[in-house]
Amino acid sequence: MALLLKSLQVRSLSLTNRLVMPPMATAKAKLDGKVSQEILDYYGEKSKGGYIGLIIIEHSFICQQGKAGKGQLSIADDSMVADLKNLAEVIHKNGSKCVMQINHAGGAAEKEVTGTLSVGPSTVANPRQFRGESHLTDFPQELTRQEIMKIITEFQNAARRVKEAGFDGVEIHAAHGYLLNQFFSPLTNKRTDEYGGTLINRIRIHLEIIKAVREVVGRDFPILLRLGAEDYLEGGASIEDSMIAAWEFEKAGVDMLDISGGLLGFGIPGVAGVQGYFALLTEAIKKKVSIPVILTGGITQVDVADQLLADGKADLIGVGRAILADSEWAKHAVESLNNCSS
User: Fold this and answer.
1) Contact 87, 60 (CB under 8 A)
2) Which candidate in 42, 43, 51, 178 is catalytic?
3) Does residue 322 contact residue 300 with C-beta atoms inside 8 Å?
4) What's phi and psi for 20, nearest 5 deg?
5) Segments in 185-313 forming alpha helices (H)
6) Is 218 exposed, middle or buried (0-12, 13-18, 19+ CB in 10 A)?
7) What is the pLDDT of residues 292-335, one digit of tens each?
């Protein structure tokens, strides 16, 4: 799949060229965050045959303070680039495009992992508590304006490294209760300065990061953004917020939106067995933007994925857990569709 295709061109492709493997943390990196042989083998296996149009590499931390967990990949300094080149080459040799996701965990980081105190837009509880993933009651330190500027620069430098490593694009992680999601959500952003309050203020850091990233990667290097489009919590971020934010992100230079959940992570309460459960979000956002939109969420059957595209719910389909469980899922999906059309 040519990642630079604009939305109308993407929408004309078959499902076989619109399959995306979304980022899924493997926790297989070395202790210092460098690429391990396990990671090379994992992505080599998943990309074999080139049946997946686009593979988005698991979230990688942009600085030690933003590390989300043990075994997480690092994009935090220039020494990471050489090994990341090997990872991009493995995927390219198998025939797929690859994007690397960059992230700062913010208040969801834990001292036992980072060795430092966590930070966030405001002094509120660890966002992982919303989904029962943390027992910690420590509150993150509220970021100063100067610290926010430093994080913007760290995102910028991380994106530069992604391009230097030979990836086909970079994805900014703004979902799943991590730092940028924390700024976006009214539940975790209680600031009273220009980075809090109104929706535009709450996405100010996103827009400044997008601008900074574009400055170093150039006009022709795709920027994706994974948006936690709804918190599914009273008083949290809503789809109405995300429709406005998506439009602003497109204006700022984002080339593709990857839609997921907010503070509750990549799931929704009460959707067991439902395939494509973020379809309501992608459908609404697609009406506001002209750039391609990726839909993920419990999709396990190729006919369901094909129908979601036919119904205009999204421009690309992300299949995560099914590919995690079966590395030949995409191959079987493509063969199934080819048999049906012959």
Assistant:
1) no
2) 178
3) yes
4) -125, 135
5) 199-202, 204-217, 239-252, 279-286, 302-310
6) exposed
7) 999 999 999 999 998 999 999 999 999 999 999 999 999 988 88
Which residues, in sequence order, are CB contacts of 33 under 8 Å at separation 6+?
Answer: 60, 61, 67, 72, 73, 74, 76, 80
Distance CA 23, CA 318 (A): 9
User: What does the block give as tokens for 202?
Assistant: 């709450």
Higher-scoring residue by pLDDT: 286, 6: 286
List the alpha helices (DSSP H) in the chain. Answer: 7-11, 37-47, 81-93, 111-114, 145-164, 179-184, 199-202, 204-217, 239-252, 279-286, 302-310, 321-325, 329-341
Say how far residue 253 (Cα) sits from the centre of its chain. Answer: 16
Q: Which amino acid is at 189?
A: N
Exposed / middle / buried, residue 342 (Cβ in 10 Å: 0-12, 13-18, 19+): exposed
Place of tokens 């686009």: 54
What are the tokens at 278? 């973020």
Judged by phi (left if over 0) then psi (alpha if -120 to 50, else beta), residue 121 lies in alpha
Residues 84 and 94: their CA atoms lie apart, in Å, by 16
290: left (phi over 0), alpha (psi -120 to 50) or beta: alpha
Say how far apart CA 105 and CA 217 lie, in whole Å.
23
Express each pLDDT in 149-195 by its tens digit. 999 999 999 999 999 999 999 999 999 999 999 999 999 999 999 99
Query: Does the active-site annotation cover 195?
Result: no
Q: What is the mean pLDDT of the chain?
A: 92
Radius of gyration of the chain (CA): 19
CA distance 127 to 187: 9
pTM over 0.90, yes/no: yes
CATH topology of domain 7-341: TIM Barrel (3.20.20)
Q: Say if CB 33 and CB 72 are below 8 A apart.
A: yes
- What one-character DSSP code corresponds to residue 218? -
Cβ pair 213, 222 in contact under 8 A: no
CB-based contact 246:289 (threshold 8 Å): yes
The phi, psi pair for 254, rounded to 5°, reads: -70, 135
Return the domain boundaries, the chain: 7-341
